[in-house]
Amino acid sequence: xxxxxxxxxxxxxxxxxxxxxxxxxxxxxxxxxxxxxxxxxxxxxxxxxxxxxxxxxxxxxxxxxxxxxxxxxxxxxxxxxxxxxxxxxxxxxxxxxxxxxxxxxxxxxxxxxxxxxxxxxxxxxxxxxxxxxxxxxxxxxxxxxxxxxxxxxxxxxxxxxxxxxxxxxxxxxxxxxxxxxxxxxxxxxxxxxxxxxxxxxxxxxxxxxxxxxxxxxxxxxxxxxxxxxxxxxxxxxxxxxxxxxxxxxxxxxxxxxxxxxxxxxxxxxxxxxxxxxxxxxxxxxxxxxxxxxxxxxxxxxxxxxxxxxxxxxxxxxxxxxxxxxxxxxxxxxxxxxxxxxxxxxxxxxxxxxxxxxxxxxxxxxxxxxxxxxxxxxxxxxxxxxxxx
Length: 388
Fold this sequence. Notes:
Blueprint: E1 3-8, H1 13-23, E2 29-36, H2 40-50, E3 54-57, H3 60-69, E4 76-78, H4 84-87, E5 93-98, H5 106-113, E6 116-121, H6 124-140, E7 144-147, H7 150-159, E8 167-174, H8 192-195, H9 205-213, H10 215-227, E9 235-239, E10 245-251, E11 256-260, H11 266-273, H12 288-291, E12 297-298, H13 320-336, H14 342-354, H15 356-359, H16 369-387
Parallel strand pairs: 1-2, 1-5, 2-3, 3-4, 5-6, 6-7, 8-9
Antiparallel strand pairs: 8-10, 9-12, 10-11
Helix pairs in contact: 5-6, 6-10, 9-13, 13-14, 13-16
């Protein structure tokens, strides 16, 4: 029986990686749904390859182009992610990959849980801002959840089926980005081009800047806390330039487990899809010299002060996390548009979150998507006025 699959965000980097995995197993899978925003050419290729019968493309111009390209084909083409209930009306599908970036990925992630036996989530905003809503729906519809980020997938693999009470400490690793060995006195003159040049991973512009500031690790700590039901003092970041070790978990019984794999997102994606399966993936041989020189070290908070934001976070689920995500998104956008310096990202962010009007959100739990969206819009507007 074919494995039924949906991919939300099939033309992004995660979506395309999954598509490449599925190409090698076409006879055993059926793609029930693909979604994209603008990249209709890539989407069209995917439709042709897998004979997909349901697609959603949300950009109006791209939607019209796809309609024209597929006018002679019997394909259900929708222009809104609100149409999931028109596609999935019978049995649950086996696996959904949720890889729509940004806040726009939260609602479809919540909506498709109902129709999925397993959902793999690669959308940071969904987990950071809406985890309490996701967790509730996972439980209601008895849907298995798997995180796809390499660090969180590694923690999940090391702790799967174990209670969080068995865990003493979790360490996630950071490459240190392009500025690990860069002189701190030169940080004032860091350019957009320099910040976009990641030494280990090929990524989009936004995540590359988050890696350069190490904000991505703040987000990953928040995600790990929520996903694995931990306290912030149980989580720590270690700098590991080779990006070979992705997580270390120290258990209460004295054992320490480490998970390593190549710097290739195909590996966690493949394993989220083929759990407990005999399927094989090509990977490099074990690098003994690398294992003998892991060079793990603590984060230099003078260079990367953004890491200190972790100390300001509330232990309980709150809307404060949405403020941090929204403010950072807006500041990074302004940096990429040459409206801010690299150092301004942290300076303005730390000022914003200290304001009384935002501190109150530490004690307010997210109740619905509308609440998260409204706060995101408000914070974005506030930041934009500061950057004019």
